[in-house]
Amino acid sequence: MIKRNIEDLWHIDARRNFRIYKVAAQIMGVWPFTCQEKFSKIRFFSLIIILISMAAMLAHDMLSNCGNIDTTLESIVFVLSALLGIVKITLPRIYWRNIESIIVSAAYDWSTTINPKSRKIMEKTSLIGTAAFILLLGGSLFISVLFVLHKVMLNFRMSSRNLTTQYVVFGAGCWRSNLPISINSIYAVQTIQLGTMQLCVSGNDACYYQIISYLSGQLDILNLNVEELSHSYDRKTSPIDEFIRRHNCLLRLCWHVEDTYNFVVMCHLMNNLCFTMMIVLTTWNENKGLGYLVIFGSITIFLYGQIFLYSLGGDVIKTKTESLFHYIYSCPWYQLPTSERRKVLLILTKTNYPIHFTAGNFYRLNLENFKNIVKFTVTLFSFLRLSLQE
């Protein structure tokens, strides 16, 4: 109850900034201020059960060896996506204190920042984070709708030709042979499963990017404050001490993000790789319909768009932590007293090592490595197609 009251004390801009984030996180049961409550746990485990049921149905298809190669590979990818969804909502819940620290810090900044330039930076990054949140989550749900409609149109075409073949939303649907259930009920169940998977996968990505947007804005504000280091020194208060405190705080928040999400990003990269191979194996035949290619092409672009946002976020944080060193060195620190100059030396030493977000603690997330991912994917794509054509 005490933690819930903390939100009531937030500035109105802080509540508005995290409004969409809060709704999505509460649906997933990972909102850090309520995640230990009974109903939050019920929502969390309900989503886990839905994702497990999705993976179990598709695993049954694969073990039964029914359907063709297309439906088998489709089942493999959706099983991996369901497992990825489980990972993506489980780890933020395990590391809920890290997320709580970040959100509390953001709410405090909204309540205490009065500098017009700083407020403008915060409003700009908040807008970017919210736009990315809506784009990621809305885009994934839109693709899900396209996927379901594609299968509905296939069934409509089959029925117009008086054929008995019926497609389910994903997989071969062999598990339904022993169940007295209509095709409409199956579509309803699988649509819920698909929507849940997209919420857990893309909703988590959207939350991640909104956090990155906040940290990016705070690093911009820290760079802005560097210009005032020598001008605001009055021998009674030291702006350098405040700078060091704030810099340490942001470093701690960045490490919270790295600890919480590095394994999630690695799983996402592996899932994308599997999905790319599935597309190659299922679309190398030129007889595929245009609708099939459009659906899987859209999904591919969207998935790599997500990886691009991960890489862009990592690159932005790296660049802005690097720029701190140059900002500090360029300011007139030599006009400060000797004791303050020693502190500047400490800051220069610490800012000489930028923050790197990683996938699995070994692959750095930046735009250069995103290019390497795309190059590797294209090379793998070409190799597999040539192998299949032979």
Task: Describe what you observe in this structure.
This protein is mainly α and 390 residues long. The protein has one domain (3-389). It has twelve helices and two strands; from the N terminus they run H-H-H-H-H-H-H-H-H-H-H-E-E-H. The protein has helices at 2-8, 12-17, 19-28, 38-64, 69-94, 96-112, 116-160, 183-226, 239-283, 290-330, 338-351, 367-389; strands spanning 358-359, 363-364. A two-stranded antiparallel ribbon has the order 1-2. Helix 9 runs parallel beside helix 12 (367-389) and helix 10 packs antiparallel against helix 11. The longest helix is centred in the middle third of the chain and has 45 residues, at 116-160. It is elongated, with a radius of gyration of 25 Å. It starts with a helix and ends with a helix. The model has no long low-confidence stretch (mean pLDDT 80). The chain crosses the membrane at residues 42-59, 71-91, 127-149, 261-284, 290-310. InterPro entries: 7tm6_olfct_rcpt (IPR004117). Pfam families: 7tm_6 (PF02949). Keywords: Cell membrane, Membrane, Olfaction, Receptor, Sensory transduction, Transducer, Transmembrane, Transmembrane helix. This is Odorant receptor.
